[in-house]
Every structure is written in C-alpha cells, then in structure tokens.
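I'll show a typical protein example:
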Amino acid sequence: MLKRSYYGLLSTISLSAFGDAFGLLAMEWLAYELTGSKLVMGALALTSGIPELLLRLLGSPLSDRLPRVRFMACLAAIRLLAIALPLGMGLAGQLQLWHLFAAAGLSGACAALFMPTAMAVIPGVADSRKLVRAFAVIDGCKGAAALLGPALAGVLTAASGSLPALGVNMLCYIAAIATLLCLPKQPKPAAATSRSSFSVSGYIREIAEGFTFYKQFPAMLMIMFMASVSNLSSIAVWTMMVPYVREVLHRNAAAMGTLTTASALGTLVGLGVISLMGEITHRRLVMLGSLGTIGVITSMWGLVPSFPFALAAVFVSGALGPFFGSLSSSLHGRLVPPSLQGRVNSIRFLIGGSLQPFGAFIGGAVAEAYGVPTLFFAAGLLPASCAAAALLLPGLRMLDGDLAALEARHLKSSRPASAVQNVLAKR
C-alpha cells in the first residue's frame, strides 16, 4: 500500500508539473501578445507570487491539520477552475488582461500549499531508509515533466496559439485529481488527531512552530536565505524569457520551449550525477558553489546574445541546480519531525520564495528601462556575490559531515522545553 501511495503521489506531482509547463508558457505568451509590456509580465508574476507567500504563512498549519491527500485534491480542483477562466474567455473571443491576472492570483494561492503538502506526505509513504532516494526520484520526475512540457508547449503554441496549451494544463489537473482520489486512505496527521478544536491563538502557535525548526538549526535558515536570493535572480531572468527570445534572439515560442527543455535536461543530468556520487559530506561547499557558479553563468549569458550559448548556459545551470535543491530537500526530510513536516515545508517554501514576486516585478522594470541583457548580467552578480560571502560564515560548516552529530549537538545544547523539541528529543 505504501508503494502504491508513493507512486500515486509521484504521478500526481509529475502530472501537475507537466501541465504547469503548458499553462505558464501560455499565460506569459498571452500577456505579452495583449500588451507587449515587460512590466505587465512582471506584474503578472507578482499577482501570482503575493497570494502564494501569504498562504504559505497563514495556511501552513492546514497541511498538518487536514487529510493531506484530499487537501491536495481540493487545491488542484481550484487551480483547474482558475485555468478554465482565461481558456473559456479566450475561446469565446472575450479574453482580457484581468482574466489572466485573476487566474494567476488564484493559481498562486493554491500552489502555495500544494507542494509543501506533497513533501509532507513523502516521509509517510516512503521507506525511511531510502528517504533521500525518494526525494531524488520526485525531483527527477518533476524534471522529466519539465523536460517534455516546455518543448511541447512551445511547439503547440507556435503552431496553434496559446489556448490549446491552457487546455492541456486543464487535462493534466483532471488526471492529477483523479489519481489523488484513487489513492489509499492516509492516516490523519498527528496535529489533526491531537487538535479536535480550533482556536485563533492555537492556530497562530502552530504557525510559529513551523519557524521553530529554523531557530534550532540556524545554518538551515541561512541556506534558505541563499535559496531566496537565487530564486529572486532566477525568476527575474525567466519572467523576461519571452522578450529575450523575441527581441534579443529574434526567435519564436518553440525556441523558448527548447531553452526551458535544455534547463530541465540539465537538471536530470545533475540528479543522475548526484545519485552516482552517493552521500555528499562537504555539503556547504557543494551547495554554495552551485549557486555561485549559476550566478556567474547567468551574467555571462547576458553578455553573449547567442542562441547556442543560451542553450549551453541553461543546460549547465540546470545541471548545477540539484546540487543545492536535492541536498536541501534531504536535509529537511531527515531533520524535520513528521508532525511538523507540513508546517516546516510551508515555511521552507515561504522563505525560499519570499523574494520571487518582487524579483519578477523588479526584473520587468529593469528590463524595460535598461534592456534584457543588462538585467541578466545584474541578476547573475547577485547570487554569485552572496554565495561567495556565505562561504566565509563559520556557522555553515555545521552542515558538513555526519548529520546525526549535528542533530545531537543541537539537542544537547538546548533543553526540550516545547512540544516541538520534545518530538525531536524522542527521535
């Protein structure tokens, strides 16, 4: 039953990622066709990102209070309705910009809790002795979906327009919802069974418990800050990919899909390399080194207006990404108690994505004022500089070596005075 639940969850995440590749490209392309404004594209990403940030904070306890699989199905159903709005209006010939903004805001709000909830389910349906591999397989399937999705979406958009791509997004959500509803019933989260009543003060306390993990492991908080800086840079670049492809490379939607596919292919290669390497003990150097190198490549990308160079840049950047992401996921999967998985993963995504909406909007403003190449150059310098500075922080050395020793040192240095610490102490 556990294997069936794990593979069902794997299918759901892959279907959602595949569909989102179609929907994202279609909505960006529609927004640019309607307005021709880079600033509007940044505002579209901001409209999606702000509700996502708020829901990750305010809704974080829901992943530990509600039946997680059914909760994911409800979130996917709402996202399905969000995509139906611009698709229906577009088919009727009545599509307006506000339809795209409404769909982006609603979809972003639901996306806030979908992946954190999925990450919270994995430790309960995977072999605890193979938890790192379970997360790696999830990352690999997401990468495979992202590998096929953008290229197919680009070809479909170039041939038939953006609306069929939105239709594919809807079909993927329908399949994901059906898969979730067919999964075996999962036990209720510990927080759901221990809290039969609701109170505002108790709910706020549950939100605060999600932050307690980072108070106990400040090195992990610094890593997530680095993730937020890297994501700010990345979203600024990828939000401007449509004008980059059209104005700098002078190519069509198929070229944009090919670039995204090259990035996803690089991600799969990086995941394969990590799996062959086995256990990595020098995590600090590997994680920060990958972020810094990606930043340098992005800056170079802005200086060389060449499609082959862009393909190489996104491939190498994609290959380096898992050396940060997979290590971060495995660290959270091992160190976070099961009863806090939903909340901590929500806070993790909150911190890591906290700067994304602003990065998208600022990226649009910089590209509008100074051009897309200047944006790429500046966006690369930011994570490269921050990663170099973080290498000098002695506290991050705690991430190297034996994780059991790291956990033991923290538990020894602090008395378990809270419920969260009591759970950790029993592990």
Observations:
- The chain has 20 helices and no strands.
- Confidence is low (pLDDT under 50) at residues 413-427.
- The longest helix spans residues 2-35.
- The radius of gyration is 21 Å.
